[in-house]
Amino acid sequence: MHRIGVLAQHVAANKDSLSVTDNRTGKTVEIPIKDKTVQATAFKQLGLKTYDPGYMGTICCTSKISFIDGDKGILRYRGIPIEQLAENSSFPEVGFLLLHGELPSKDQLTSFEKDLGRHGTVHKDLASMMANFRHNAHPMGMLVASLAAMGTLYPEANPALAGQGVYKDKAVRYKQILRIMGKATTIAAMTYRQRQGQPFNFPNADMGYTENFLYMMDANHEGTAYKPHPTLVKALDILFILHAEHELNCSTSAMRHLASSNVDVYSAASAAAGALYGPRHGGANEAVLRMLEKIGTADNVAAFIAKVKDRKEMLMGFGHRVYKNFDPRATIVKNLAFKVFEVTGKDELIEVAMKLEKAALTDEFFIKRKLYPNVDFYSGLIYKAMGFPTDMFPVLFAIPRFAGWLSHWQEWTIDPENRIYRPFQNYQGYDSRDYVKIDGRKQQIDDKDTAYARNIYSRRRDAARNDVGKTYG
Predict the structure, then answer these.
(1) Does residue 376 have an active-site annotation?
(2) Is residue 425 classed as helix, strand or coil in its secondary structure?
(3) pTM across the whole model
(4) 257 catalytic residue (yes or no)
(5) Is residue 320 flagged as an active site residue?
(6) Active-site residue, from 264, 327, 347, 376
(7) Catalytic residue among 119, 257, 320, 408
(8) N or C terminus of the chain with fewer C-beta within 10 Å?
C-alpha cells in the first residue's frame, strides 16, 4: 500500500494541474496549469474568487511585446535586450519593432520615419485649442486634453460613430497609430511653447523624429536654419528608447482597460496619459528632482537619509515594483548623464545624487529593502541639464510611451480573448436596509466631513451669509 501511495503522489506531481481542497467543506477541485498560470474563474467551482488589490499577482492577458524578469534585471522588447537597442538603435526603429514585432528593413525604416513626419502636422482647431490654455497650465494637462480632443477630429475612426468593427481593418488601425505617434512630438512642443508665450512651430520635414521635436521646441528667429545639438538629440533619443515600453504598468493597463470597451483610440491614449500624469508613475523623475532640490547640497545627504529611515522623508527614484535587484535602464541613463553634462555643463545637483546613491547602495537599511536607483533617478537630472522645465518631464516620458501603448492597444484589439474589463469587488458595506424619510433621520455624518477648503477671497461673501467655521486655503 505504501508503494501505491508513493506512485500516486509521483503521478500527481507530474500532472500539469493544481489540486485545491476547501477545508470548510472538504471539496477538492483540480485546476489545469498552463504557462505557469491557473484560470481565476476555476475557483468558482468552490464558490470563491481571487482577491488581488493592485493586481500584485494577476495576469489579465497574453502579450508578445516586452519581457521583464525583475529578479534578474532583464528588459527585452520583442526579445531584444534593452541594452542592445539603446546602444545600436533609434527611437523610430524601436517604435517599428514594438508595433510590428520585427526590426524594419532599411527601406521600411525610411518609409516609417516619413509616415510619422507626414502625420506630424496638427489640425488648426487643435492648435487653436492649445493656444487658449492658460500660460501656467501643466503640460501634461494640455497633452491629456489634446489627445481626447483629437478623437473629435476623426469621426470616421470612432467605433461609436463609424461602427463597432471599424478597428478590424488593419489599415484603419495603423493610420490612427501614425496619427498619434506623429503628432505626439508636435503637441508636446506646443505645450512648451504655450508656457513660454511663443508661437508654435510647424514640423521640419528635413529632420528626424527626436531632432524635429527639439527643433519645434526651440527654433525662433533662425527658422528652419536652427539645428539642435546632435549629442542632445542622441541622448533624448536613447531616453525615448528606454521609456518606450514597460509591460503592463499603470498607464499601459489603462490603455488596455479602455480599449476593452472599444472606445476610440484617442480617448484610450488620453486615459493612458492621464495615468502617466500621476507622481507614482510618470511624475516620478519630477519627484526625484524636487527631492534633490530639497536636499540642496551633498553635505545634507546624511541627515536626509536619517529622516528616510525614520519615515519622515520619502526616498524617490529608488526601488521598483517589478525590478528586485537593479533596473537595467538605470546604468544606461547614468552613463548617458555624463555625456550630456559634457555639452550642457554638470548640474549642481549631480553631486547630491551621486552621494545619495552611494549612501543607499552601501546602507544595510536600503540593501535589505532592495532600494537601488531606477531609471527615474538620473533621467530627471538629464532633463534639467538640457533645460526642460520640471513639469515637462512627464510629457517627455509620454512621447515614447505612445509606441508601447499603441502596440498594446493593437494587440488587445485583435486578441480573440478580448473581453471588456470588469473586475469584481469585495463588498463589506451594509446588508439590505430600508429607506428612511428625511423627517425621521438622525444626523450621522459629522459636519467636519462635509467641510471643504474655501478661497480666502470668499471671506466677505461668507461673512455676509453668516457662514462661520470655514476652512480657508
Answers:
(1) yes
(2) coil
(3) 0.87
(4) no
(5) yes
(6) 376
(7) 320
(8) N
